[in-house]
C-alpha cells in the first residue's frame, strides 16, 4: 500500500481514526499488556463452527402476516419505511494511445518508465512475434535493467476462450504480480490483446495493462478501444468487459511480417472510417493503398520494396503513418464519447449490418474485413439509388476497393430474402429500430432507419444487373495461416533513426498521442423491501415488464425453502421465469461455475 500502513482504530464506539505509525516496539509493549488483561488462547469455537450453512425451520404464515400487519392497505410502499439507497458514482476511464516508431529502441524509455519502480514486467507475447522480434524486445528490457518474464501465448481465434484465460491467470499468480506497479503487457494480435485485457480486468478485480498490437487489425481497431473478451462456445466475444488499458503503444514496424491478406483485411476497417468521416484518408488510400500493401506500410524491403527507390519507400512509409494516424484519430473520435456503446447511432457500425452474417455464411468464415467491405460496397449503391451519392462517387469507391484487392461481391447482396431478416434481427436487439449508417458522400454519412423489404427487392434487382456478382475466388484461396516474412535488417532499423538526427527522438510529437478521458456511470439502488415476493408487490416485476421473461440463478437451498413463493410471484406477474439452480459453495466459486452460468444465458437467449 504505497509504503505505508493504514490501520483504522476506534477511538470511541462509533468513531475511528487511522494509525499509520505502529511500530514493532509498540506491538511488543501492547501484546505484553494484552496478555495480562486477557486470558489469551486459541478460541476453540472457530474450528468447531459448522463448515456449511443449514436452513432453519420454514417461515410460518404468522411470520408472514406480521410483515403485512405493519401496513394495512394491502398494497404497500415499503421502501418508505425501510429505505432505498441510491448509489451513483462514476468510474474514470482514461488512457493514452501513442504512435511510437522505434518503441523497442533501447534509447527510448516510453515503455520502460512504467516498470521503473519494481524493475519487473510480466509480458504475454505471441510466439510468432517472439520468434521474429523477440531478440529486440528482450534486449530492450535488458537495456533498461527490467527483469521481464515473457509468457508465450499462442492465441488463434479457436483458443480465445476461458481455458486460455485460466492459463494466463496462472502465469500472473506464478509471477506474483505487484498490482500497482507492474502493468501486465500484451504484445500480439487482436485475439491475444482481447484475452489478456479481459484477464487484467478480472484479476484481483482489475490490474493495469498495456497493449502493443502487432497485427494490422490490432493497430487500427482491436487495441484502441476498451472492449475485452473471449468467445464462449460459438458465441464470439460473449464474455467480456469494458475496461480501458493504461496505455497503448503503436509501432508499425511489426507490420513488416504481416501477410498481405491480413493487411487487406484491416484496410477494410480503414476504408470504413474513410467513407464515413474522412475524404482525405480515402484519397490517401487511392494514391498509396497498393504500395502500402506491397511494402507493408513501408517496412518490407523485399518484393516490390526491394526495387522501389529509397526516397519512394520513405514516402510510402510517411503516407502509411498518416493513414494509420487518421484512421485511429477518426475511430477514437467516434469511440471515445461512446466507450460502452450506450448510444446506438454508431457510424463505426458501417459495414457491420449485413457483413457479420455474410462472414459466417461460409465455412471457414470469410475474413471479417472482407465481409464488411462487401456490405460497404452495397451501401454505396443503396446511397446512389436514393440520389445521395453520385454514380461517379460510388464508382470511385468501388474502383479503389478493386485496386486494393478488397472483395466487394457476394450473392447474399442480391438476395433480399436473406438481407431483410438480418435487418429485422438488428431491429429486435436495438430497441425496435434499425440504424444503418450510409455514406451520403465520401467522408460523410447519414443513418437510414426506414429500409423496407420492398426497397431491398428493388435495389437488389438493380444491383445484380450493374455488378457481376459471384463469390470471389481470392477469398477461398488465401492462406489460412500467416507466414512470417524475412527478419528486420539493420538498414531497416537505421532508416528509423535517419528520419531524426539527434539520437533521442520524441516521436509522439510527430505522430500523435491521443488521450482518451471518459467515465463510466455506476449507479444502482439498494432497497430493504420486506414482502419483496408478495404477489401484490411489483418492485422486482417491473424490471421484466417489457419482455415478460426472466433468467434467475437461485441457490438450491433457497429454492427448496422459498421456491414456491418465488415461483408464485413470477406467475402472478405473468413473467416466464427460468430458474437455474446454482449450487455455489466457496469451493465452487470458480471459472467452471462461471462457464456453466454462461451456458444458461446462451440457452435462455438473453
Ligand atoms: N476489442 C476490440 O475492440 C476488437 C476490435 C476488432 C477485433 N477484435 C478481435 O481481434 C481478433 C482478430 O485480431 P487479429 O486480426 O489481430 O488476428 P489474430 O490476433 O488472430 O492474429 C492473427 C495471427 O497473426 C499472427 N501475428 C501477430 N503479429 C504478427 C506479426 N507482426 N507478423 C506476423 N504475424 C503476426 C498471430 O500469431 C496470429 O496467428 C478477433 O478475435 C476480434 O474479435 C477486437
Describe this structure in words.
The structure is a single chain. Strand 4, helix 5 (127-143) and strand 5 form a beta-alpha-beta unit. The chain is of the alpha/beta class and 606 residues long. It starts with 6 loop residues before the first strand and ends with a helix. Helix content is 44%, strand content 16%. The longest helix has 27 residues, at 310-336. The chain has helices at 24-37, 44-48, 61-69, 78-82, 127-143, 162-175, 190-202, 216-222, 260-277, 279-294, 303-307, 310-336, 355-360, 368-385, 391-403, 416-429, 453-466, 473-477, 490-498, 507-511, 556-572, 591-604, and strands at residues 7-12, 15-19, 84-99, 120-125, 147-152, 184-188, 209-213, 230-232, 235-239, 247-250, 436-441, 444-448, 513-527, 549-554, 576-581. Strands 5-4-6-7-10-3-13 form a seven-stranded mixed β-sheet, sandwiched between helices. Bound molecules: nicotinamide-adenine-dinucleotide. Nicotinamide-adenine-dinucleotide is lined by residues 126, 128-129, 156-157, 160, 188-192, 194, 214-215, 217-218, 221-222, 225, 227, 237, 254, 257-258, 482, 484. Residues 266-421 form the 3-dehydroquinate synthase C-terminal domain. Keywords: Lyase, Metal-binding, NAD, Nucleotide-binding. One of its GO terms (molecular function) is nucleotide binding.
| Rounded Rg | 30 Å
Terminal Cα separation, in Å? 41 Å
What's the structural domain tally?
4
Query: From the structure provided, what is the oligomeric state, counting identical versus distinct chains?
Result: single chain
Number of helices: 22
CATH architecture of the largest domain: 3-Layer(aba) Sandwich
Helix content: 40-55%
Strand order of the largest sheet: 5-4-6-7-10-3-13
Biggest beta sheet attributes: 7 strands, mixed
How big a fraction of the residues is strand? 15-25%
CATH domain class of the largest domain = Alpha Beta
Number of beta strands: 15
CATH fold title of the largest domain: Rossmann fold
List unreliable stretches of 5+ residues: 42-55, 63-72, 74-82, 469-510
Q: Mean pLDDT, nearest integer?
A: 84
Shape field: globular
